[in-house]
Amino acid sequence: METGISYFGNRILNHLATDLEDISTHGCTFVVHSLSEEDMQIYGATMRDIVHTTQASGLQAWLEPLGVGGVFSGEAFSLYAARFPNHQQVFSTGARVPAICPNWPDFRDFMRMWVDAALETGTNVLLWNVPRFATPRQFPWYRGPSNAWACRCAACQYLYRQRFGEEIPTVYDSSVRLFRQEQMLEFLAEVTGYAASQGATNALCLLPFEEHRGDVPWRAAASLPGVHIFGTYPAWLNTNMTPEECFGQKTARVVELCRFLGKQSLIWVQGFAIPTGREKEVATAIEIIAANRIDNVVVKGYDGYKHVSSIASERPDVVWDTVGRVYRQARRGSLSKTR
After folding, report:
1. Structure confidence at residue 333 (pLDDT)
2. What are the two backbone dihedrals, phi and then psi, of residue 259, each rounded to the nearest 5 degrees?
3. CA angle 135, 136, 140 (to 5 degrees)
C-alpha cells in the first residue's frame, strides 16, 4: 500500500525540504501537491522545483487541480470563474455561482492547458479530485433555496435541447439527473483521455454517494479508459456513521469495483478539522483501508492542517503523530488490528 499526504500552501523550497524529511519519517511514500490557477500563473518554475525536490527525496509527487474552475475540490479560488462570468454555473433558481460549467468548450481547452502545465513539472500522476456540479452548501454567502441545483447555463440549455428535444426544466427530475451524469462523464473522459495520451497516470476520486444524489456513477467513471486509479473520500465526520461503518462499506465497494476493472484503488482520509479526542478514528480508518488491501491511501492534509486556521484540527500535532504511527505500521505490515 502506498501512503500519501496532501501538502498545500507552501512554495518556499527550503521549508519544503525540511517538511519532506518530516513527511518521510511519518511513513509516507508520496505527496499530493496542488497546481491551482494561481500556481499556473505565478509559480510555474517553482512548481517544477517542488516536484523535483519531492522526487529527489525519494517520494512520488502527484498533482491535483486544486479548485480549478470551481469544478474540482479544494480551498483555492478560481480566477477563471471570475474572469468568465458568462461561463459560470447557473442554479435552478437563476443565480450564478463562481464555478465554471464543465460543458463549455473553452473550459475544456483550459483543462488541456492545465494538464500540459502539470506534466511540465515532471510529475506523471494527476489526481482529479471530486469533480462535480455546484451545490448551495459550497457557498456560505448563498441565501437561496437549499435544494437548488446546477446547471442551467446557456451551454447546458443548448445541450439538453439537443439530447431531449425540450427545454431543461427548473425542477430536478430523472432526465436532469441523467443529463448531469452523462455530461460530467463526457468531461472526465475528455480530460483524462487527453492526459493519458500525454503519458499521465490518472487517479480519479469521487464523492462517496455513488448514484444516490445524481452524482457521477462510480462504475461508469472508473471504467473510463483514461482512468488508472479510482477511489473515494469517505468523510465520516459529516455523517452519523462510525469510521468502521463508513470506511468498511466504502472501501469494500472501491476494492470490489477496482478488482473487477483491473484498476488501482484509492481512499482519502480526512486529517483536518479533527475534534479533540477523535484522533484515534483517523488511525481506525487507515487500519481498515490497509486490511482491505487498498493500493493507495492519502490523508488530507499535512501536519493536521495546522497552517489552515479555518479547518485546522483541534490538536493537529496529535493527528499528525497518529498518521505517522499507523503509516509506519502499515509500511512494516505490522498493524495490530485485523478486520
Report:
1. 83
2. -65, -40
3. 130
Average pLDDT of the residues in 232-248 = 92
DSSP at 242? -
When pLDDT is cut at 50, 70 and 90, the band that residue 216 belongs to is: confident
- 320 — alpha (psi -120 to 50), left (phi > 0) or beta? alpha
Distance CA 172, CA 79 (A): 29
pLDDT exceeds cutoff 50 at 338: no
Specify the DSSP element, H or E, that contains 61: strand 60-64
| Amino acid occupying residue 335 | L
Instruction: Please give the model's pTM, rounded to 2 decimal places.
Output: 0.95
Residue 229 to residue 233: CA distance in whole angstroms: 14
What span, in angstroms and rounded, lies between the C-alpha atoms of 313 and 320? Answer: 10
The pLDDT tens digits for 184-204 are: 999 999 999 999 999 999 999
Q: How far is residue 314 from each of residues 5, 19, 40, 197, measured CA to CA in Å? A: 19, 21, 32, 43
Cα–Cα distance measured from residue 215 to residue 285, given in angstroms and rounded to the nearest whole number: 24
Residue 241 in this model has a pLDDT that exceeds 50: yes
- Contact status, residue 168 vs residue 176, Cβ threshold 8 Å: yes
For 234-254, what is the mean pLDDT? Answer: 93
Chain centroid offset of residue 3 CA:
16
The cell numbers describing 79, all together, are: 480566477
Quick one: what percent of the chain has pLDDT higher than 90?
92
2-76+105-132+196-332: which CATH number, 3.40.50.970, 3.40.50.720, 3.20.20.330, 1.10.630.10? 3.20.20.330
Q: Which residues sit opposite 7 in a β-bridge?
A: 33
> What is the DSSP secondary-structure string of 154-193?
HHHHHHHHHHHSSPPPSS--HHHHHHHHHHHHHHHHHHHH
Domain boundaries, the chain: 2-76+105-132+196-332
Of 55-69, 104-118, 237-251, the least confident: 237-251
Phi-psi region of 43 (alpha: psi -120 to 50; beta: other; left: phi over 0): alpha
Q: What residues pair up with 91 in beta bridges, in sequence order?
A: 150
